[in-house]
Specification:
Elements (H helix, E strand, L loop, with lengths): L13 H16 L6 E5 L4 H5 L6 E4 L17 E7 L2 E7 L10 H4 L1 H8 L4 E10 L9 E9 L20 H10 L4 E7 L8 H10 L3 E3 L3 H9 L3 E11 L10 H22 L4
Parallel strand pairs: 1-4, 1-5, 5-9, 6-7, 7-8
Antiparallel strand pairs: 2-3, 3-4, 5-8, 6-9
Helix pairs in contact: 1-4, 4-7
The structure holds 8-iodo-guanine (8IG).
Length: 274
Amino acid sequence: MTDPTAAAPTRTHPLRLAEDAATALAERTGVARHDVALVMGSGWLPAAEALGDPDHEFPAADLPGFNAPAVVGHGGTIRSIMVGGKRALVFLGRTHFYEGRDVRTVVHGVRTAAAAGCSTVVLTNGCGSLDETRQPGTPVLIRDHINLTATSPIEGANFVDLTDLYSPRLRASCQEVEPGLSEGVYVQFPGPHYETPAEIAMVRAIGGSLVGMSTVLEAIAAREAGLEVLGISLVTNLAAGISGVPLDHAEVLQTGQDAATHMGALLSAVLPRM
Ligand code: 8IG
């Protein structure tokens, strides 16, 4: 006998699972549709705080398909907040490819955002810079990427075009808000270790200027889902072998704290232009 009072089982196909998460999000918040999603990367929590007080905040794991935290208190958090006239869905903390979860889980937030009505996603991250003139605390617009994960979030023969993946229109909006913002090519490594100096020399040779462990797979899934993508990296360290000092995660957190007001203001000013 099936129990007629039991909750409907969560569906497993990635797009159905994202629809189920979007339905649960609408029930949880009372907000039928969101306009834009923000994925806040390493060092970006203080920038999210600078956006103001959210109307709703709850553990991501309350929605279908999001991971329960591996460590109590260290799971992702979802917020719903009005910023610049837009209803924003903010993901604090993402599932990283280096956690060894399947790629479906890595991009579930982006697919949920699309199912929740978002037409735009802002993917942020903390990264290493190959250019030593970009000191920690410098925001860089992602102009293009190189995927070194050797995988894709797309399943089946869907030959998605990635030309202009990182919206020229949204990059121009950022340039209007902050003239002189620099742009770079973001290279995603699998991690979780940082690169060797020889690997950074390779990145330079293949045309990369920023290195990190996120964003690329989410951007591809976002394009597949029809979202407009804005990518913003916050330089938190110089890449291995550039400055001569070892890389340190504490640097990431401190840089985010120091840049919070700047990054929060940049996001707040760009959202109304979306
Ligand atoms: I924050 O220098 C941050 N994340 N791969 N290399 C890679 N990821 C990073 C780095 C970095 N800094």
